[in-house]
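[job 4471] stage=fold_predict status=RUNNING
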Amino acid sequence: MDILLVASAFNSLSQRVYAELSDQGHRLDVVLASHGADAVRAAVHDFRPELIVAPMLKSALPEDIWQEHTCLVVHPGPPGDRGPSSLDHALAEGAREWGVTVLQAGAAMDAGDIWADGSFTVPPAGKSDVYRNELSDAATAAVLQAVRRYADGAFKPRSQSDPGIRVVWRDHLRQEQRRVDWENDDTETVLRALRAADSQPGVLDELCGHEVFLHGGHPEDRLRGRPGELLATRAGALCRATRDGAVWIPELRPRKNSGDPAPFRRPSASVLAAFPAPPGSAPGMPGMSDRPYWLPEIAARLELPADRTTWTDIRYRQQGDVGFLSFSFPGGAMSTVHCRRLLAAYRYALTRPTSVLVLGGARDFFSNGIHLNVIEAADDPAGESWANLTALDDLVEAVLRTTDRLVVTALGGNAAAGGLMLALAADEVWCRAGGVLNPHYRTMGLYGSEYWTYSLPRRVGAETAERLTSQALPVSAVSAERLGLVDRLVPVPPGEFTAEVERLAAEVAGDGGIARRITAKATARHADELQRPLAEYRRAELARMRATFFDPQAPYHALRSAFVRKVPAGPAAGGRGRVTADR
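[job 4471] inference complete, writing structure tokens
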């Protein structure tokens, strides 16, 4: 069918629905509801869809559209649930099970007839993680079922007046309801509040006399202090005491009216470091502008005991002949510091006696490449763009030059741009079946680096590489395997991905032919180096990227700023619906 997707943003769920409907042979176009009702009407007029699907919608569809066309809307709650903060309420209230509903748009919000629904178990994770994984699995399956039912023509959708449906209206979850009472709330209560708002809108709070939004929350098992006290930093995150424990908060966002020129999410310590030191704090140290010098810095140990419950973004562990270097950065964004720390951890992993090294393997994002928020907040965004890119290139090069063991990248979730090219540097790429890959840079106005001109064509061929990078469309995990971007699909729920990767990696390490594979890999790398050195790929890519970074008129700068500040990017974004994907 001809299907028009209407979305407030081309976010992770919208991309997955687009990719998986495309896999089934449907013809799709996309229009952003944020561009206004007239843009939606124009898209309907031009495309003349047989069906309209809204995977993520923050505003109502125009009445004349849903009156004349069947419009299926994804609601992130079970049948009968209504309101704009459905998943937020579920996490804040500690729901164990939740659901998703595909319903027909009508006059009343979320009250239309039900075409399909699904349910899932809620894991102890943040809202954005749950949304991109468990909810995305359920929602995509429901959309595909609803589309099949519509195409069949015989299905009669279920009215919400059905006695078996319990209708519950949930109002917008306001900041006063999200507030943390640090004196009286226990750790579990604090975590529920933080997780229910981890990506948006955050939890409004006050630190050092400044209003900030807290983003993300993870438990800490050892550090303790007075309720609300800031205890330490680690890898850019802050540890804060609760009534009965402590939590780690990876990111802060200054309030827009605070006077901060960068009112968007970035590592907590760097935001706090810009504030004056509180009275009575220890004297500062020169050159410590990237973290609050009055708080102790706790080293991020790579190898932690299995019984520890704490937060760190990079970990290494070993099981027999397999090493696992896992990492998880908020939003999948990797700053200069992230890249350098991960490279140091990778080099450490190479000193361990293993035949297989798994890079990644955690649930949710693998990587989305350079950290646009940190770049936008920098005094010199062009210089920080360059530093970030070269640091990521160094990491990718280290993976490409590893010839004494097999390297596997395990994608528990989505990957894009330079983050996907990091994955492609490995010998094998394993991807959870629900993942979405974006092997392109052009929606951010960039040519790209990370050795993509070497890694991508060698996997999919020059013609397909050109198509993938120029069309700039999301690719489902299934299509990625068919194209050669992915070597193995891992068809498991998000919570089972890590364990399944461990099992598969043990099989690879136990294969009697592992030594021959490593030898063949080293031989192939040597032959490729003789044909064209990696240094030449890097030089050519970086020459184009440097020209863009240091050109004040390059579209990259406006696109980056619009993405970070979540405002429309304008014509430079590439036309109706072809916009930078939300992370």
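[job 4471] summary: The chain has 19 helices and 27 strands.
[job 4471] exit 0
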